[in-house]
Amino acid sequence: VTISKSRLCSRPLCANDADVLLLFDYETRLVELRALTVARDTNLLELCAHHAESFRPP
């Protein structure tokens, strides 16, 4: 299965391709980075490698 590279990072003004999904579970206070899925879910953030590496949970 291949992921279309037309999916861009969700960060404002970033034109890099998305590489990972950022998931929040507010109930358990869990933050997780996962591989992109085939189907895009607009409720999840998709981040490029740079923003995934520099992300720090609040």
UniProtKB/TrEMBL annotation:
<dbReference type="Pfam" id="PF12005">
    <property type="entry name" value="DUF3499"/>
</dbReference>
<protein>
    <submittedName>
        <fullName>Uncharacterized protein</fullName>
    </submittedName>
</protein>
<dbReference type="InterPro" id="IPR021888">
    <property type="entry name" value="DUF3499"/>
</dbReference>
